[in-house]
Amino acid sequence: MPDMGRVLKLAYPARRIPTRVAPYPILRLLALFDPQIRAILPSVGVAHPMSNARARADMAMNFISPEGALRATAAWLIAAKEV
């Protein structure tokens, strides 16, 4: 997530985009009071490796880079006045 923040901060320097990571003890404290934080706490810091190799090979699909997809999504949201 901090990587996403850095990509967006470079693309939109005038916007307030968080780039820091909350310390785990703070998240545990907040989880005592917020059920949404409590629900995601077990997956914090766990990497889920993914690959699109099979989709590229079996279906001949081409994908844009994750950074490009993030920038395109942000541009659409801004144009649609969602953020």
Detailed description of the structure:
It is a single chain. With 83 residues, this protein is mostly helical. The protein has one domain. The protein is built from five helices and no strands.
Rough outline: extended
User: Number of DSSP strands?
Assistant: 0
Ends apart, CA distance between termini = 18 Å
* Average pLDDT rating: 91
Q: Any idea how many domains?
A: 1
User: Main sheet, how many strands, which sense, barrel?
Assistant: none
What structural class should be given to the helix and strand makeup?
mainly alpha
Question: Which H/E pattern describes the elements?
Answer: HHHHH
Treating each run of at least 4 consecutive H or I residues as one helix, how many helices? 5
Helical percentage: 40-55%
Low-confidence stretches: none
Radius of gyration, Cα only, in angstroms? 17 Å
Report the portion of residues in β strands: under 5%
Topology:
Layout: H1 2-11, H2 24-31, H3 35-40, H4 53-59, H5 66-79
Helix pairs in contact: 1-5
Key features?
mainly alpha, 54% helix, single chain, extended, 83 residues
Summarize the structure.
With 83 residues, this protein is mainly α. Helices cover 54% and strands 0% of the residues.
